[in-house]
Amino acid sequence: MAPPSRPFYLVHVVIFVAVSLSVTAATATAAAVLPRGALPTKSGYLPIPPAANASLYFAFYEATEPVTPPATTPLLVWLEGGPGCSGFLSNFLQIGPYLFAGGSLSPNPFAWNRRFGLLFIDSPLGTGFSVAPSPAAIPTNQSVVADHVLAALQSFLSLEPSFRARPLYLTGESYAGKTIPAAGALIVATNPTLPEQKRINLRGVAIGNGMTHPVAEVTTHADIAYFMGLINAKQKRAAEAMQAEAVALTREERWREASAARARLMSWLENATGVVTLLDVEVQQSVAVMAAGLADFLSTAEVKAAVGARPDVAWEACSAAVGAAQEEDVMKSAKRDVEALLRRGASPTATATPTRVLLYEGIRDVGNGPVCAEAWLRELEWDGLAAFQDAGRAVWRSGGGLAGYVQRHGALVHVAVYGAGHFVPYSQGRVAQEMIEDWVFRKGLFSAATV
Questions:
Q1: Which terminus of the chain, N or C, has less C-beta within 10 A?
Q2: Which domain of life is it from (predicted)?
Q3: Chain region(s) in the chain for CATH 3.40.50.1820
Q4: Strands of the 412-417 sheet, one edge to the other
Q5: Catalytic annotation on 365?
């Protein structure tokens, strides 16, 4: 989650110390600063060897109302977008146990750590409370980011022996639509080379409004804006010309120029439509306003101590340095990583099952909505694609109202969420909570009989 003013129109848009793997205790001082439920169960820094003097900040919240035994209670790992936006944005504005608004915290009735352990990791280096040892240490591509996420997960799972066997799901939104499949595919490829006690029990990945295969997604924005009634036919043609430029530069692997071309397109569309943000065409307030208040809150010494962050780190919602470092990564694709997850176990002799993939998007998002996802899904090289495309699109109702639409086949599920934009849990907290719980536990429209 991130302010819409990020460079490149990206949605989201440490020095290693001996105690970096230590856990922050809920002291009396911390309890006075944060409500007990808002205090992480564990927090601190996870070493990411072989990177020198580097670690990623984490905050973990254990399940508050689990319906499974502790040894089998799933773990959700949340990776924020950006690139370079902190997981604390979604922690305190969307899915964490407490929400920040108006300068204060209140319980979140739709927290994702109700049924699951919920782990936030500030990634890549330079993001949130994760300090890069030097500017050169900030990753410039998803391959390195995935290496660091895997190393951090290994460090986290080593904190308690019971963590290792628990089912693990990588989740997140926006630019994490690249990081999640990259890290997931790396886990799948690495597991067979490790002793059993070091393997990660990855069961699935869930991507919200993801930027996964940009060269296909960038071709949709003019159509989306036009059919929403936000631009006319003449403007649509102008936007299509800018889209074609971004595609051509991407095909030529002129990555920095392609990124700049996409940025011009999105900026032009934002000006032409006059909406506050293309992330959600119905909102009237910028996310940046809320993020600014959260930055003040997380900058106080007592709060830093309570969440296990280094006292010398200045938290910012989204890092410009990380965004700049990954500028050439913007138009690169993670589609092959999604294919690797879906293909796992596809051969007749394979024993492992495919990794489950959930894609969900709010329909009010022009930049990374359902139409964008459908555009790149058409290009998947996966033997289940034809059956997926032929599958029915079920109307999903929740609490007596329309929640969205669900299409599924095999390990792949695609959900279009009604009444939401880019930040689905922010706009539709109850629906998002129901979705992630039903998907993990294979209930309702996500039941094992149909998925």
A1: C
A2: Eukaryota
A3: 7-211+286-446
A4: 42-47, 55-61, 117-121, 75-79, 168-173, 202-208, 356-362, 412-417, 401-409, 393-398
A5: yes
